[in-house]
Amino acid sequence: MAIQLAWILLVYGLAAAVVRLLYIRHATELLTGHQKRPDQRRIHYILITSNHELWVEWVIRVLTVYSYLLGRHLRISVIDDQSEDHTVRILERLGRRGGFELAVISSPLSVEPSTMEAEAGEARAVLDLRTMKPTDKIPFVR
């Protein structure tokens, strides 16, 4: 019983110390005006989809978390190649939730992703979900 109580007190003490250190760091940033600003560059993913309702939401959420961890803005352009399922509806719902820019083009694939203009300071990658499997690794850009 004494060992369990010692562990509880140790964990509580460590948690209190971490909270106190974070508070001191935040107060120092406010006083000095030095805040670490996130990298303002943008990450742009171009997704090519066709009947991918089962895993397009998962891909979008993974990209959102990745950009959040890097502290960068996320821009996603989706070229939907004549989906007959709810892929476009799922993308529109995710776009309304916010947190990133989303553009959906629903038409037969006539736009070549490499011809899309890249903005200055923008890292870009093309993900063709038609050729990828759900178990493939997503190529992240920095």
Key structural traits:
single chain; 142 residues; alpha/beta; Rossmann fold; 2 domains; four-stranded parallel sheet; 3 helices; elongated
Structural account:
This is Glycosyltransferase. Keywords: Membrane, Transmembrane, Transmembrane helix. The chain crosses the membrane at residues 6-23. The chain has two domains: 1-36; 42-128, Rossmann fold, CATH 3.40.50. It is 40% helix and 20% strand. It has helices at residues 2-32, 56-70, 87-97, and strands spanning 42-49, 73-80, 101-106, 122-128. Strand 1, helix 2 (56-70) and strand 2 (73-80) form a beta-alpha-beta unit. It is of the alpha/beta class. It is built from three helices and four strands, in the order αβαβαββ.
Short recap of the structure:
By secondary structure, this protein is an alpha/beta fold. Helix content is 40%, strand content 20%.
